[in-house]
Design brief:
single chain, two-stranded antiparallel sheet, 11 helices, globular, binds uridine 5'-triphosphate
Length: about 290
C-alpha cells in the first residue's frame, strides 16, 4: 500500500518579476483574491486533502507569510473586545496553523523551483509529499491536491496534475508525454520543460500540483541546471520515469494563473462570481461596467 501523504512543500521564494512593482517588498503569494491571500487557498487545499504539515520555502521579503499563519494576539483581543466582530474573529483564527505544524526555511538564492524543493529535504525526510505552487489557484471539489492524494493511494509513485493547453503555449510549461489515459490517469513516458510548439510531445501541461517521491532529492542533490539556467523540478522528476510508478492526472477543475496580471484579475472575478456572499453584487458590477 502507498505511504500516506502527510506533508506539503510550498515553494514561495520566487521573485515574482511578472508582478513588479507589487512584489518589490511583498510576496506574490500574499496577493489577495477577494478576501484572502493566495497562500491561504493553497493551505486550505492541503487541509482538504488531509495534509497538515507544511514546509514553506521562503526568501527575503516573505515574512508576511509566516505572520499570516501565526495567531495575531492584539488583533484578536481587539476584535473580541468590540463584541460585534465574532465573524471577523473566526475568519482571523481560521487562518492560524496548528502549533509546530509549519516550518519556514529560506532559499537563499532563487536558483529555480527544483532548488527550492531541495531546500525542504531535511524536513520531508523519506516519505512522499505534495508540492503546490500557490500562485496557481485551483478551484474544484474535491480539490486538485485531494484528487492527487486519492490517485496516489491507488498507484503509489509520482503523480502530477496536467491540463490541456493551446499548442502555441507549450513553451510556458513542462509538457508531458503519456501512454493512453485510463480513468483520468495516464502512465508518463517523458517530460520536456518549455518545448517549442512544434517539438512538444503533447499539449498536456504540468500545472502546479504534484505528489512527489522523496527519491527526487537524490537527483536534486546534483544541482544540475536545466531550461533557463535554473535547477528544474521537472528534470529531477523526469529521471524517475521508468524506475518508479509515474502518472499524470488530468485535472478538470478551474485553474487561475495568478502569477500573471490578467490571470490574477480573472481569479478575483471568477472566485467572486462563485461565492454566495459576493456573486450577485459582482454580476451587477460587471454588467454596469460593461454597459458604461
Ligand atoms: P515562477 O516561475 O512563477 O517564478 O515560479 P517567480 O519568480 O515566482 O515569478 P516570475 O516568473 O518572475 O514572475 C513558480 C513557483 O516556484 C517558486 C515561486 O515562488 C512560485 O511559487 N520558485 C521559483 C521558488 O520558490 N524559487 C525559485 O528559485 C523559483
Amino acid at each position: 500500500m502507498a505511504q500516506r501523504v502527510r506533508k506539503a512543500v510550498l515553494p514561495v521564494a520566487g521573485l515574482g518579476t511578472r508582478f513588479l512593482p507589487a512584489t518589490k517588498a511583498m510576496a506574490k503569494e500574499m496577493l489577495t483574491v477577494v478576501d484572502r491571500p493566495l497562500i491561504q487557498y493553497a493551505i486550505e487545499e492541503c487541509l482538504d486533502a488531509g495534509i497538515d504539515e507544511f514546509v514553506f520555502v521562503t526568501g527575503r521579503n516573505k515574512m508576511a507569510i509566516e505572520d499570516h499563519f501565526d495567531s495575531a494576539y492584539e488583533l484578536e483581543a481587539t476584535l473580541e473586545q468590540r463584541g460585534n466582530k465574532a465573524a471577523e474573529l473566526k475568519l482571523t483564527q481560521a487562518a492560524t496553523l496548528k502549533q509546530g505544524n509549519a516550518i519556514f526555511t529560506r532559499q537563499q538564492k532563487p536558483l529555480g523551483l527544483g532548488h527550492a524543493v531541495w531546500c525542504a529535504r531535511h524536513w520531508i525526510g523519506r516519505e512522499p509529499f505534495a508540492v503546490l505552487l500557490p500562485d496557481e489557484l485551483m478551484v474544484s471539489s474535491p480539490t486538485c491536491t485531494a484528487q492527487l492524494v486519492t490517485a496516489h493511494e491507488k498507484t503509489g509513485g509520482n503523480i502530477v496534475a496536467v491540463m490541456n493547453v493551446p499548442r502555441e503555449q507549450t513553451k510556458s510549461y513542462g509538457i508531458v508525454a503519456v501512454k493512453p489515459e485510463k480513468d483520468g490517469l495516464a502512465e508518463m513516458t517523458g517530460i520536456v520543460e518549455k518545448p517549442k510548439p512544434e517539438e512538444a510531445p503533447s499539449t498536456l501541461a504540468w500545472i502546479g500540483r504534484s505528489v512527489v517521491l522523496p527519491e527526487v532529492f537524490d537527483h536534486l542533490d546534483r544541482h544540475e541546471k536545466g531550461a533557463g539556467g535554473e535547477i528544474q523540478l521537472t528534470d529531477a522528476m523526469a529521471k524517475m520515469i521508468g524506475n518508479k510508478p509515474f502518472h499524470a492526472m488530468t485535472y478538470t477543475g478551474q485553474r487561475y494563473d495568478c502569477g500573471s496580471r490578467i490571470g490574477f484579475l480573472e481569479a478575483n472575478v471568477g472566485v467572486a462570481l462563485n461565492r454566495a456572499d459576493t456573486a450577485a453584487e459582482t454580476r451587477a458590477l460587471l454588467t454596469r461596467m460593461l454597459k458604461g
